[in-house]
Amino acid sequence: MGGEIQQNCIHYKPAFLMETVLTETQMIAYSERDILVEMRMYDEIKTQLKSLLWSNFIHSNLQTQKSDKHSEVYLKLFEDACLSVAEKTCDERHLRLMGK
């Protein structure tokens, strides 16, 4: 089992040198062959969004070196762990999290 990043989308504000930040990640979507993960970085007290990253990971078979379907065990895990969001694009999500 392996994975490759198919696509990234990032919105970023610079953090200061030695600034303490808070990071959060969540799986926001999945299918038979991929997962979409959202990563957010905030200031220490979580009042300012510093960055938003969406990464789409494609499941691949290391022996065949081709994309492959996730096993039923993983699909069940994804079903239990996925916290979907209403926005369909990274840009829409960024605007919503920024309060725009």
Give your account of this protein's structure.
The model has no long low-confidence stretch (mean pLDDT 92). This protein is an alpha+beta fold and 100 residues long. It starts with a strand and ends with a helix. The protein has a single domain (2-97), classed as Roll (Thiol Ester Dehydrase, Chain A), CATH 3.10.129.10. The protein has helices spanning 72-81, 90-97; strands at 2-12, 21-30, 34-43, 49-61, 66-67. Helix content is 18%, strand content 46%. Strands 1, 2, 3, 4 and 5 form a 5-stranded antiparallel sheet that branches. A hairpin with a 4-residue loop joins β4 and β5 (66-67).
In a few lines, what is going on in this structure?
This protein is of the alpha+beta class and 100 residues long. 18% of the residues lie in helices and 46% in strands.
Essential attributes:
alpha+beta, 18% helix, five-stranded antiparallel beta sheet, 100 residues, Thiol Ester Dehydrase, Chain A
Helix count equals 2
The first-level CATH class name: Alpha Beta
Number of domains: 1
How are helices and strands ordered from N to C? Answer: EEEEEHH
CATH architecture: Roll
Strand content: over 45%
CATH superfamily: Hotdog Thioesterase
Shape designation = elongated
Helix content: 10-25%
Low-confidence stretches: none
Content-based structural category: alpha+beta
Task: Please state the average pLDDT score.
Answer: 92
Largest sheet: 5 strands, antiparallel
How widely separated are the two ends? Answer: 40 Å
Write the CATH fold name: Thiol Ester Dehydrase, Chain A
Report the radius of gyration as a whole number of Å.
Answer: 16 Å
Number of strands: 5
